[in-house]
Design goal:
Endonuclease III, domain 1, binds iron/sulfur cluster, single chain, Endonuclease Iii, domain 2
Length: about 220
C-alpha cells in the first residue's frame, strides 16, 4: 500500500514538472458548442496546423454554424476539409452532426443545458464522435475536471509508465486523473500534448533535453538507440 502511494506521488511530481516546463497558458474557449465539435472531428488523424487551415477555410467559404453547413453543398465542404485529410469521411460526419442537432434538439443551445449523461448519450450516436471528442466537449464547454486523452497524452503516459502499454482510453484517463488534482487537469491535458509534440515525439523523442529523463523508464531505450 505504502509503495503504491509512493509511486503515485512520484508520478504526480513528474507530471507537475512537465506542466511547469511547458508553461501552458490558461485556455479560453469562446467557440460555440458546434464549432468545438466540428474542430475536433476535423482534427482526427491530422496535426494542428492542418486542422486550423481546414477550420479557417470552412469559416471563410461556408461559415461554421449549423445552418450554413446544412445549406452548403457536400463537395464544397469536402474542398474546405482537404488540408486536414480524410475529407470524404469527415464531411459526412460534420453534416450528420449538424442534422442531428437541428432535427433532434432543435436548438444548438440545448447542448448547454443538457446534463453530462444526456450529452454523452446524444453525441455517442454520431458517427466519428468517440470518448475523446465527448471529453473535450465536457472539459472545454462544461469546464469538467477531466483529462481528454489524445495520441500525445496516451504515448507520454505509456512511456512514463503511468499507464500500461495495453491500456485503452478510459484506463489511461483514470490513471492520469488519479495523480493529477482536479483543478490541474485541463492544464495537464494541454501540457502533455505540447510535451508530446515538442519533446516526447512519436518517432524520435528528444530524451537528451527532456526535463524528466532521469525519472523516465523509457529514456534508456531511446538514448541508447
Ligand atoms: S525521457 Fe524520452 S521517452 Fe521519457 S518522457 Fe522524456 S522524451 Fe519521452
Amino acid at each position: 500500500m505504502y509503495t503504491k502511494i509512493k509511486i503515485k506521488l512520484e508520478l504526480s511530481k513528474i507530471i507537475k514538472r512537465i506542466v511547469e516546463e511547458m508553461k501552458v497558458e490558461k485556455n479560453v474557449n469562446n467557440e460555440s458548442a458546434f464549432e468545438t465539435l466540428v474542430t475536433t472531428i476535423i482534427s482526427q488523424n491530422t496535426n494542428d496546423k492542418n486542422t486550423m487551415k481546414a477550420v479557417e477555410l470552412l469559416k471563410k467559404e461556408i461559415g461554421l454554424n449549423i445552418e450554413s453547413i446544412l445549406s452548403a453543398k457536400k463537395e464544397k465542404i469536402i474542398e474546405c476539409l482537404k488540408p486536414a485529410g480524410l475529407y470524404n469521411v469527415k464531411a459526412p460526419r460534420i453534416i450528420e452532426l449538424a442534422k442531428k442537432i437541428k432535427y433532434e434538439l432543435g436548438d444548438e443551445r440545448k447542448l448547454d443545458i443538457m446534463d453530462d449523461e444526456e450529452i454523452k448519450e446524444f453525441l455517442s450516436k454520431v458517427k466519428g464522435i468517440g470518448p475523446k471528442t465527448i471529453d473535450i466537449f465536457l472539459a472545454f464547454k462544461r469546464k469538467r475536471n477531466i483529462i481528454p486523452v489524445d495520441t500525445h497524452v496516451s504515448r507520454v503516459s505509456k512511456r512514463l509508465e503511468i499507464a500500461d502499454k495495453k491500456d485503452k482510453y478510459f484506463e489511461i484517463r483514470r490513471k492520469l486523473e488519479e495523480i493529477v488534482p482536479e483543478e490541474e487537469r485541463l492544464k495537464t491535458h494541454f501540457a502533455l500534448i505540447m510535451f508530446g509534440r515538442k519533446i516526447c515525439k512519436a518517432k524520435k523523442p528528444r530524451c537528451m533535453i527532456c526535463p524528466v529523463k532521469d525519472d523516465c523508464p523509457s529514456s534508456k531505450q531511446f538514448l541508447s538507440s
